[in-house]
């Protein structure tokens, strides 16, 4: 539990310092216009199979939080969900620095009856020193991997691409620890798919790792939960191109960036600093665990206002909004999950197709009571959500203990 506190405090430092460094007269840079799919369109809903797969990947990345604490032992044993994952074999773990300070994770094989996979799981940060390092304000120029297999010059160029220096430094220290082991596993198991998964800051490292591995021709499937912004517009356009994320068929995506309503981490580093999100977003619209397949949907482009980008609208204030009664809650997505009632009721309501209100969720005791005006606070300032929305991806991540899934399925 103490490590969970330090992890969330580290992320809080990122959010607070980002806001303090923001110019007082700054306004959110408008996102490029994107087409929006309607919630009732079939192509916006994820399939039950994908829903179950994302739930399994959340458990896989949760195990990475055992590295540096209680540990993961061969053949595949830990205090988290190891026993629930059938046919898993630990290959190696890595930790690039002192206890709880730097990048770490594990490599495992997933044998039948599970799908045949080489799995690389990247843990989020536990440490304040790590978070401070991640606050490096100077962006790093991104030079794509060319390598031995790309000597013919067919590697796509990344012109004017920059990425977060802290994230790039983490990947540089990690790559020397894992590339040889992954390459050896691919040689030994050529019919096994390469799967990368990361949570929080580990999601940023997974994004950089996945981009290089895609350029190597390794064809990884990358899934991140609560991934922060990694680079500038040129970089995210490059990543979208490399992973073919501009495809209209979301079911073909090889990079899934999972976000959760009220999670502040996907909103940092600041858009004003030139950072943007990449495509491939899958959005969880329900606040509290457990989720159902109806709570998870595909998003369109890099800044779908029906998904996590809707929170950006809460940071812009306009006197005309107040004059016309629009207020700060300009997006449907936010209005669905925040109670704007002035009463002390903690029940969130929605309107069904027949026009009648129905109760959908009882606000748990640990959340800020809805009769307080917390819904007027920009999402980046809701630091308590580092303990909740940022942790709640199919289960509560980062504890390295059995359970964490209120659905009781695991």
UniProtKB/TrEMBL annotation:
<dbReference type="GO" id="GO:0030600">
    <property type="term" value="F:feruloyl esterase activity"/>
</dbReference>
<protein>
    <recommendedName>
        <fullName>feruloyl esterase</fullName>
        <ecNumber>3.1.1.73</ecNumber>
    </recommendedName>
</protein>
<feature type="region of interest" description="Disordered">
    <location>
        <begin position="342"/>
        <end position="362"/>
    </location>
</feature>
<dbReference type="InterPro" id="IPR029058">
    <property type="entry name" value="AB_hydrolase_fold"/>
</dbReference>
<comment type="similarity">
    <text>Belongs to the AB hydrolase superfamily. FaeA family.</text>
</comment>
<dbReference type="InterPro" id="IPR002921">
    <property type="entry name" value="Fungal_lipase-type"/>
</dbReference>
<feature type="domain" description="Fungal lipase-type">
    <location>
        <begin position="119"/>
        <end position="271"/>
    </location>
</feature>
<feature type="signal peptide">
    <location>
        <begin position="1"/>
        <end position="26"/>
    </location>
</feature>
<dbReference type="InterPro" id="IPR051299">
    <property type="entry name" value="AB_hydrolase_lip/est"/>
</dbReference>
<dbReference type="Pfam" id="PF01764">
    <property type="entry name" value="Lipase_3"/>
</dbReference>
<keyword id="KW-0732">Signal</keyword>
<dbReference type="GO" id="GO:0006629">
    <property type="term" value="P:lipid metabolic process"/>
</dbReference>
<keyword id="KW-0378">Hydrolase</keyword>
<keyword id="KW-0719">Serine esterase</keyword>
